[in-house]
Amino acid sequence: MELTMSVSEMNRQCDGDILYWGGVIYKRDYQTEIAPHGASGCAGWPMKSDAAGVHPNQAVDFMKDASEKGVPTEFDTKTGQAVFSNRAHRSKYLKAMGMHDRNGGYGD
Q: Which residues contact 44 (CB under 8 A, 6 or more apart)?
């Protein structure tokens, strides 16, 4: 459920993370508020990466190769996108594969 209100109205209705609205108690979901891009966007985890991706026909081979290099990584078999569970996972995978993220994780 999504509610739209002014900050002052929210402050009157909220008690910390709890929102009282229309006789119903809601708990705020900060992950959704801060990272609305979802699983395929740059702000959400897991992150799907085209840049670190492969041709869909190579997905299984690259999953096996990543596991052998000590960084088990899933690839979407339909799109070939690499699927990273968090920043540390992405960093380890890129290093193992000889790639470099020139943004250093800023902005995601």
A: 31, 35, 37, 38
